[in-house]
Amino acid sequence: MFNNLLIADSGKGHVEEMVRMLRDLPGFRSARINLLHVVPEQDKSGSDEHWSAAAALLSQAAERLGLDRSEVNAIIRSGDAKQTVLKVADELNADLIVMGSRGLGRLQSILANSTSQYVFQLSTRPMLLVRDDLYVRHVNRLLVTVDGTGVGDDALRLACEMVRDIPGGHLTGVHVARQDVAPTRGAASKSDSLLNAAVQRARSFGVALTPLHITANDVGRGVCQAAKEVNADLVVIASQDRRPLVARGLVDLDKLLGGSVSDYIRVHAPAPVLLVREPERS
Predict the structure, then answer these.
(1) What is the edge-to-edge ordering of all strands in the sheet holding 234-239?
(2) pLDDT tens track for 212-242
(3) Contact 116, 14 (CB under 8 A)
(4) Angstrom distance (rounded) from CA 24 to CA 29
(5) CA 163, CA 140: separation in Å to the nearest integer?
(6) What's the pTM?
(7) What CA–CA distance (Å, rounded) separates 32 from 196?
(8) Cα separation of 80 and 91, whole Å?
(9) Which domains does the chain have, with CATH numbers?
């Protein structure tokens, strides 16, 4: 399922614990592990001390992950961490970016120059975000959002492929509607239609999906509510790439006044969040 993981870890939080648990899953066991450490640009002129420290950090991380040094591709780069993570992910053609997060809100993240929030907003590759304040559990119960879009179908497929090989694994598909719309007599509601289609789609992958319909004024809050109800160990969400190519280098201020569903879930979900974003089209 995943062949090439990029782990961008500062050595804090629960990222390494999450990676160890993922490697217990069949779809991750043979994945190539790439560990990235970025030396801040202002530090590179100091001496070789920063580079030696970075090498030691990566070596210790590999040891904590229970990996032989030969099994890990250790990468040390200097520069801006946000841009470097995105650049290295492209160079490696990474299947998945794994990062930790302090769980800051949008405005806090921008003011704090948050690397994880920036990558979460701009990467078109799947990204697994592990908040520092979460208790990371073995992945057994997955929640996936169902929205009827193409990228939503990609997220459903990925969730099915993950849960299919987990002994006793369980998958719930949630559709959040802002308000209930009464269907015409004899007809299914839009939520029912989407969830029924998701059940059939999951069945084609050999997975039994439990449908869950939630009505909420805010979709992000509804997804987080569902994650709490099913005690999810991992939340898989889909999001269209919101920004045109020309705007990718700009600070993400466009959603500060509006509501970003994926960003709300990033901060408030009670479990790590796996974001599947629509691939960028040239």
Answers:
(1) 72-78, 32-39, 4-8, 96-101, 127-131, 273-277, 234-239, 141-145, 170-177, 209-215
(2) 999 999 999 999 999 999 999 999 999 865 5
(3) no
(4) 7
(5) 7
(6) 0.86
(7) 36
(8) 16
(9) 4-131 (3.40.50.620), 141-277 (3.40.50.620)
